[in-house]
Design a protein that fits this description.
The complex is a heterodimer of chains A (about 425) and B (about 325). Chain A has about 425 residues and is of the alpha/beta class. Helix content of chain A is about 40%, strand content about 15%. The two termini of chain A are about 35 Å apart. Chain B folds into three domains: about 10-205, Crotonobetainyl-coa:carnitine coa-transferase, domain 1 (Rossmann fold); about 215-255, no CATH class; about 255-315, no CATH class. Chain B starts with 9 loop residues before the first strand and ends with a helix. The chains are: A alpha/beta (about 425), B alpha/beta (about 325). At the A-B interface, strand 4, helix 3, helix 7, helix 8 and helix 9 of A face helix 2, helix 3, helix 7, helix 8 and helix 9 of B.
């Protein structure tokens, strides 16, 4: 059974994470994705490459696609795009705002040729405003959007460190690109209209901080006071660590927090998450404590007396948890019905029984680098199952096939290769 | 003005906290008509840091554009009402543990029996199968169990791991919106509805895809070495902070002379740069006025002499 986007053709002009991941989601859903790459390959092929033009990062973000190599600066390569267009439903592009028009692949040009085209234009900062023409990667979007400061992670010299776990603005945007395409396909199916979809790393990074990037005057007196202090410090030229301390959005919520956190144990760590009154009671039962934390009607982290009492109580609980092993505490929390889990490492998760039971890993065979296992599709669909069709393509593997799809004969293909416009 | 690609689509939401509410807010933003079913006391997120009764910023930020229907879904009468309402719905979004929906008679089989072309988006913490399927799980637990938290590798002064923002929840919200839109497209083409499933677990794993990925040709023995070190550490009861130090040492060896994609401290704050291609790295070298062989053909980040040189460069 084919995926929900079976028969949909996508032309991808993207690199690194957000765009490739967005199009990989479309490929997982059954779309035929043709990835256009420059002759040297997109940069992610070379980042930590283990053999020429093949890297783990690249292979994890480009499964199930075809690779078409075009030197888009050449008019004959741009003509290939125009000749392909009648068969294409969706274009996904992730260049700086001025680049598509320069290469003749902007929305106005392409939608003129194909009026019901769905065109996703992803940029770092959006097409308008003072930053529109600036380049931007996930790390810069993390910094500019406040995500990095929200994590508040410093190295030993007090320098900020990015969110190293994952390029979250990129991955989030990759999912947004895919659902934007699906929503627009739905609209096209009902009305016949195509459209331009714009997404930005900036918007995703802010959407993931919904309650911080949110001004609600009636509730925000404390936030305003805090930010006023931050702005004063900024004017005085205070160093980052001081700004962070003044900003510290989590500080008030973490005073007396026994319910939603990680505890160190003798041999690792155990994580619990309780966010409702009934679960709060279960946590207290598991920890054998009367301390109410933020369930206390008197809860007031600004009151020094309450705060001191809370700190003493939390210290005592932490000390007791630290005296036991992870297995012991998991058993206790589980017995009391508290959502809990151990602290694992991603590398260790492929063979995890829970991960296996839900068919999360997918095994693929790459024609150059052999077997691999990676995270499979995000969704499971009962009528249109998502099945990755292949590993990532070798650079230019499908150039001839795609050119034939555009109506080119062998002589013409050879001529284009000779000129260097395709490879 | 009616607008948005999902204009006219009716969604019935049975979710709370972040992932489900955010996904339905995204659908509402796209023009869908979302009816949120809440218990008479309000969903827990209304009560978290409320500034007036039943209103909190965390709730208000994730539920714009919706209608609220406060009912006790445990009551058979309410279930009857929901079964009548479902006939008018296009989409159900649900985020309960696998066993709960059936108990409340709002599981896929029951509702699809009433409305066959229903799109039913079902999110769970750990998936519907396996030993952990029926366990409750919030973002924080899934971050820990999936390895997302340890990838952050941040501990407080006592060695206790610190918790990043709720990324398992927020990325899952996007996936749920994606699943609904894909299924609606399929329904527009074929007339058929279906059940779509996702989990916090698969989303958390996806966001650090290449750490999870096993690729023997690229991994060489490093993956096995890491897993062996982890096994040994667990067997010996090594504290988390100590193992993290060991892991960071193993990771740092591969990170090499990173002056290209990082944050730098300035005299009055900090600045982030990102350069991931040779052209941009040339620009970084020019801006910092440094010479570095990162883009020379013989650059080997694992060569001990290079590691030392890279260390000097960073300093």
């Amino acid at each position: 059974m084919p995926g929900p986007l079976n028969g949909i053709k996508v032309l991808e002009f993207t690199q690194i994470i957000a765009g490739p991941y967005g199009c990989q989601n479309l490929a997982d859903m059954g779309a035929e994705v043709i990835k256009v790459e420059p002759p040297e390959g997109e940069p992610w092929r070379q980042f930590s490459q283990f053999m020429p033009n093949e890297a783990k990062y690249f292979q994890s973000l480009n499964r199930g696609k075809k690779s078409l190599v075009l030197r888009l600066q050449d008019e004959s390569a741009q003509q290939v795009v125009y000749d392909l267009l009648p068969q294409i439903d969706v274009v996904v592009i992730n260049y700086r705002p001025d680049v598509p028009a320069r290469l003749g692949i902007d929305y106005d040009t392409l939608s003129e040729l194909k009026p019901n085209l769905i065109y996703v234009d992803n940029t770092a900062w959006g097409r308008r405003g003072p930053w529109a023409h600036r380049p931007g990667y996930d790390i810069v979007a993390q910094s500019v959007s406040g995500l990095m400061a929200a994590e508040g992670k410093l190295d030993k010299n007090g320098s900020p460190r990015q969110i190293t776990s994952t390029a979250i603005a990129d991955y989030g945007t990759g999912v947004a690109i895919a659902w934007g395409v699906c929503a627009a396909l739905y609209h096209r199916e009902r009305t016949g209209e195509g459209q331009l979809i714009e997404s930005t790393l900036l918007n995703t990074a802010l959407a993931f901080q919904g309650s911080s990037a949110f001004d609600l005057p009636v509730a925000d007196a404390a936030v305003h006071a805090r930010m006023e202090r931050v702005h004063q410090l900024q004017e005085l030229g205070a160093p980052y660590a001081e700004l962070l301390a003044a900003h510290n959005p989590q500080a008030l919520l973490t005073v007396g927090n026994i319910y939603y956190r990680v505890y160190s144990t003798k041999d690792g760590a155990v994580t619990i998450g309780a966010l409702s009154p009934s679960l709060f009671a279960k946590v207290r039962a598991a920890l054998d404590t009367e301390f109410l934390g933020f369930a206390d009607p008197e809860f007031n982290p600004l009151d020094p007396e309450w705060s001191a009492k809370a700190t003493r109580a939390v210290d005592e609980i932490e000390e007791r948890v630290r005296a036991g092993t992870t297995a012991e505490w998991l058993e206790i929390f589980e017995r009391n019905g508290v959502p809990c889990g151990p602290l694992n490492f991603a590398e260790d998760m492929l063979d995890d029984p829970q991960v296996q039971a839900n068919d999360i890993p997918v095994s693929l065979e790459h024609e150059l680098s052999g077997p691999q296992r990676q995270v499979g599709p995000l969704l499971r669909m009962s009528k249109t199952p998502l099945i990755p069709r292949s590993a990532s393509p070798v650079l230019g593997r499908h150039t001839d096939e795609v050119l034939r799809l555009a109506g080119y004969d062998d002589a013409r293909i050879a001529q284009l290769r000779e000129s260097g416009a395709v490879a | 003005m009616a607008s948005g690609p999902l204009n006219g689509v009716k969604v019935l939401e049975f979710t709370q906290i972040i992932a489900g509410p955010m996904s339905c807010q995204l659908l509402a933003d796209l023009g869908a008509d979302v009816i949120k079913v809440e218990p008479p006391g309000g969903e827990p997120w209304r009560l978290n840091a409320q500034f007036i009764p039943l209103e909190s910023k965390t709730y208000a930020g994730l539920n714009r554009g919706k209608k609220s229907l406060a009912v006790d879904v445990g009551s058979p009468k309410v279930q009857e009402a929901i079964h009548r309402l479902v006939k008018e719905m296009d989409v159900i979004v649900i985020n309960y543990r696998p066993d709960v929906a059936k108990r409340l008679r709002i599981d896929y089989d029951t509702l699809a029996g009433i409305k066959p072309d229903l799109v039913y988006m079902d999110n769970t913490a750990f998936g519907r199968e396996g030993p952990w399927a029926n366990r409750p799980g919030y973002d924080i637990v899934v971050q820990a169990a999936s390895g997302l938290m340890s990838s952050v590798g941040k501990v407080d002064k006592d060695g206790t791991p610190l918790v990043p923002p709720a990324f398992a929840d927020t990325t899952t919200a996007y996936s749920m919106a994606l699943g609904v839109c894909a299924a609606l497209f399929y329904k527009a083409m074929t007339g058929k509805g279906q059940r779509v499933e996702t989990s916090l677990l698969v989303n958390a794993l996806t966001t650090h895809m290449s750490a999870f990925m096993s690729l023997p040709a690229a991994d060489g023995d490093t993956r096995e070495m890491f897993l062996k070190a982890l096994e040994d550490a667990r067997a010996s009861g090594m504290p988390y902070a100590d193992f993290l130090e060991l892991r960071n040492e193993m990771m740092r060896r591969q990170a090499g002379g990173n002056v290209y994609y990082r944050a730098f401290l300035t005299s009055n704050g900090a600045i982030a740069i990102g350069a991931l291609s040779k052209g941009l790295r040339d620009k970084v070298r020019a801006a910092l006025n440094i010479e570095h062989n990162r883009d020379e053909p013989d650059y080997n980040p694992l060569d001990p002499a290079q590691i030392e040189a890279d260390k000097q460069l960073r300093a």
